Amino acid sequence: MRNALTIAGVELRLFLRDRSNLFFVFVFPLLLVLMIGLQFGEGATTGRVAVSGGDSALATGIVRELETDDVRVSRPAWDDALELLARGRLDVAVRVDDAAATAHDDGGPVRLEMVRGSAANAQVVEQDVRSAVDVLRARRGQERALEAYGVVADRVDDALSQAARATSVPVLEVRYVDELSKEFEGLGQFDLGASGQLLLFVFLACLTGSATLIQARRLGVVARVLAGPVSAGQLVAGEMVGRWAIGVFQGGYIMLASSVLFGVGWGSLWLSLLVLVIFSLVAAGTAILLGTLLGTEGAASGAGVGLGLVLAALGGCMVPLEIFPDTMRAISRITPHAWAYEAFADIQRRDGDFLDVLPQLGVLAAMALALAALGGWALRRSLARAM
Amino acid sequence: MTDDVLVVDSLVRRFGDLTAVDGVSFRIAPGETYGLLGPNGAGKTTTISMVAGLIAADEGTVTVAGQPMTPRTTGPKRHLGLVPQELAIYPDLTGRENLALFGRLQGLRGAALRGRVEEVLSLIGLADRAKDRSKEYSGGMKRRLNIGIGLLNRPTLLILDEPTVGVDPQSRHAILESVEALSGEGMAVLYTTHYMEEAERLCDRIGIIDSGRLQAEGTRDELVRLIGGVDTIRLGGTGDLAGAADELRRIPGVERVETERRSAVLTVKDAPALVAQVVGTAAAHGVTLADVEISRPDLESVFLHLTGKGLRD
Ligand SMILES: Nc1ncnc2c1ncn2[C@@H]1O[C@H](COP(=O)(O)OP(=O)(O)OP(=O)(O)O)[C@@H](O)[C@H]1O
Ligand SMILES: [Mg+2]
């Protein structure tokens, strides 16, 4: 065990010592988390709505309703609002003109001008605005009805809140217009990108490690280690643990840095770490297999990066799995990434507990065992053959 | 005999159709330096790989310090220090880190490890470069580090596989000196080379290997005696060399005389004992000698005699 750890320690040290790795390990993943967060993350947070027009009961009412829905609301002039919309700084602009304000106060039909931006989530935000207006209109209708029955205007509010407390009218709150948006509910802006990038980079970091195995064999240090009192099994275990440690290190760093820098929520820490630990083992096994089967460092790096990117793309690390068509989604299940992605989705978005992610963890563990066994066997065999 | 450090018995190793090592046997006593001398492809590295337990033998056995050596055993490997033919160091680790890593894998820990690493660093003359990555070392420094790693565990048997190939004369001299010093301290050494000067200088006994077979074995003098009296005396000068030749042939111990216009080459049993008589006889026949040259057979000629080819291709 000591020997295995010594060998693993060298792997980790060499990995961190390689200058060219530093950018890819420490900077690049965070850049991608940032980019993906900016691209896909908005729908998950609040929308941005401009409410134009002078102060009126209707305008302040809409603002209040939207703000309780966590929508960011601004009050620019209409022309400015349109320009902001065109520049993508807004999702929806609503114009509350005097006529609409008066109509609302009188309980008449209200006509509002609303313009939607082109951002992916503008539709969802538009729906937010519609439901805000609906709430206001319903309320205004109730007020008018009470007034018509002679309730004094000051007492209307009290009466309505009393009524609301007494009855439990089902509240239908339409917040998301499609399944997709619902999937991302509870997700911070950068959360989605972070888990995908974590999986992508953990796998890549391990796979590029397959080149160091080939280098070590080419340099003869592997033979030299075996000429000492170190068994082939210890060497294989050391190489495996070394790569696994690289994966866990890379993943742990992304978790830490993304939560500190971007406020990414990883849900239950120990569950997320468990996913990382098992996923890294899959990656380590793959790396050993690759490093044993391929002859040169160039081939190993090339194949490692290629395989890492393809598996990551298939497994939902670049484009979220949820927007995959069904066949692609089915294909994605051959990748460890997809299983780990789903485990993270459960943990991050739905407060999943151990039992919820047990199926995914089980599949990952099976993959890890199979690959680790295969990689270990292949390495041992090749050591015995070609020394 | 049982306290021999290494006993190699009838080793055979095949690679496909090629029998790289074909029935090699030899023994090394404690403190002895044994040379395996042979040309490229003779089977030296393959033999050593089996001795060090890196590859399995198809037939035959290796016993190190009384314990059988196979690729699966780790026990007897504690007694070995292997210095492979190709550099086997981590280029991205410093000299000290390389030593510390392999020392740890040899089972050294803590203060013992640190102490031994510093000792070896000064032994191989790298103490002042210990903090540099080994890829920044010169070729000779890398070779010395390569050797140093083999010394960490104070092996009973140090195996050096052509340690001086591609090394400048100065480093080469340093390497040979340190091998002599180690052997002086009682370490047994198995040394492969295709430089016969090195084998002659370092080795107590030498095995001549070619095409996977041990062709002959013994001390330098024993090997030379194997091929019989083939000293030569070469006379250069003017005068009646051809006439003197008949007289020279009559001297007991002279086996053959060949003459050219200005020289004669005598094949004799024991050149130093005969040279005075030879010179006298030639002078008596009016030959004016310009030079006299004695040459005794070396391992090169032994090798030529045994295999019909030179050591270097
Ligand atoms: N792994 C291998 N696979 C196939 N053939 C091999 C292998 N290793 C060695 N050989 C062959 O076995 C023969 C002996 O090789 P070996 O390396 O033992 O020679 P050597 O005496 O060390 O030569 P050199 O002085 O060049 O190092 C050569 O013909 C070589 O090609
Ligand atoms: Mg060799």
TrEMBL record, chain A:
Keywords carried by this UniProt record: Cell membrane, Membrane, Transmembrane, Transmembrane helix
Occurrences of domain ABC-2 type transporter transmembrane (ranges): 22-375
Annotated localization: Cell membrane
Membrane topology type: Multi-pass membrane protein
The keyword Cell membrane is assigned to this record: yes
Tree of life domain: Bacteria
Pfam family, one: ABC2_membrane_3
Residue ranges of the TM segments: 21-40, 194-214, 244-264, 270-290, 302-321, 357-379
Predominant subcellular localization, coarse grouping: membrane
Keyword Cell division: no
Protein name (record): ABC-2 type transporter transmembrane domain-containing protein
Automatic annotation (TrEMBL), chain B:
Cited Gene3D superfamilies: P-loop containing nucleotide triphosphate hydrolases
Molecular function GO terms recorded: ATP binding
Domain ABC transporter per the UniProt entry, residue ranges: 6-236
Keywords, alphabetical: ATP-binding, Nucleotide-binding
Classification via SMART domains: AAA (SM00382)
InterPro entries registered for this protein in UniProt: AAA+_ATPase, ABC_transporter-like_ATP-bd, ABC_transporter-like_CS, P-loop_NTPase
PANTHER family assigned to the protein according to its UniProt record, in alphabetical order: LINEARMYCIN RESISTANCE ATP-BINDING PROTEIN LNRL
Protein name: ABC transporter ATP-binding protein YfiL
